[in-house]
Amino acid sequence: MEFTDRFYRRDHRQADLVHFQLVVKETDLDIGVRKDRFSPQLVAWVEETIRTCRTPLEDYLQRDPGFVNALTPYTVLPNAPLIVKTMVEAGRLAGVGPMAAVAGAVSEVVGKAIAKRSRDVIVENGGDIFIRTSRIRRIGVFAGESPLSNRVAIEIRPDETPLGICTSSGKVGHSLSFGKADAVVVLSPSVALADAVATACGNLVQTTDDLERALKFASEITGVKGILVIKDDRLAVWGSVKLLPMESSRGSS
Question: Could you name the domain of life of the organism this protein comes from (predicted)?
Answer without folding.
Answer: Bacteria
